[in-house]
Amino acid sequence: MSAEPGGERLVDHEADSEDRAVEAALRPRQLGEFIGQERVRQQLDLVLRAARERGATADHVLLSGAPGLGKTTLSMIIAAEMGAPIRITSGPAIQHAGDLASILSSLQEGEVLFLDEIHRMSRPAEEMLYIAMEDFRVDVIVGKGPGATAIPLELPPFTLVGATTRAGLLPPPLRDRFGFTAHMEFYAPAELERVVHRSAGLLDVEVDPAGAAEIAGRSRGTPRIANRLLRRVRDYAQIKADGSIGQETASRALEVYEVDQRGLDRLDRAVLEALLKLFGGGPVGLSTLAVAVGEERETVEEVAEPFLVREGLLARTPRGRVATPAAWAHLGLTPPAQQAGQPGLFGG
């Protein structure tokens, strides 16, 4: 099921090739330019300033949080603030200890190594990383079997910035080796409005406060989505309006792309409509719900559900998925228990 014209979800948190290209142009270069995450910024500023004053390499940093909140951007800012180069890789790309050894042995002193999706790194590589982070050393195994020997290879001091969307999957020995850990929160609408205004200026697009608020309110608390919606609204304004973005233009544009006032797209609404109209609000099993909307179980569970749960529109229970009163209200429907005038799952 396509969520909007073109077959890709405008409200998907993951970055596609277009997003990565645009993000590179829109990405802030200094900590003072970074919008939102006030607590994280203040704490990280202290860590980096103290390291610079000591003339030392910054402590290893672990950033956790949902996709699209700025973990990659912060890693680049850390490198820029420390005046150091940055090397970027990801957990899935490191499936053998030798892959990690090759990267670590080529690092320069003070270099920042950004390891995205660090929770998906292989276990042998994880164990090698423990020693590298703590002792700045890797043991290179030469030979096989009983005759194999470990040759220690000294590494220059470096800063590892690990990013994860699932901090709970990190083994404690790895998590404990980070000197600074931070959790990235979803953005408030006012912060997203600032993101939209900043990005609009860089894209040379005129957007008024009401237009920025309209886009921010449908961005699911995520700057990446705000920037993506801004680009699509810009296209609509260029073709269907005078090129500037006001509230009405933004609203009409996002209606075309089927992103509603709360940021739900067609997939989200399909899940809610099936839950409400076909199963009376639940409870219903995940597999049954996925079949009802014509999607894979994993798609419903990993793509649609997290936002619906966060918005208070759906609840996970031991008996299955259940719609909340807010879900009925959002779709303009009346819960069956209220229709019958009887107390039930939703009270009454």
From TrEMBL:
This is Holliday junction branch migration complex subunit RuvB. The keyword Cell inner membrane does not apply. One of its GO terms (molecular function) is hydrolase activity. It is found in: Cytoplasm. NCBIfam families: PRK00080.1, ruvB. InterPro entries: AAA+_ATPase, AAA_lid_4, DNA_helicase_Holl-junc_RuvB, P-loop_NTPase, RuvB-like_N, RuvB_wg_C, WH-like_DNA-bd_sf, WH_DNA-bd_sf. Pfam families: AAA_lid_4, RuvB_N, WHD_RuvB. Residues 188-258 are annotated as: Small ATPAse domain (RuvB-S). It comes from Streptomyces lonarensis. DNA binds at R297, R316, R321. One of its GO terms (cellular component) is cytoplasm. ATP binds at L26, R27, G68, K71, T72, T73, E134, D135, F136, R177, Y187, R224.
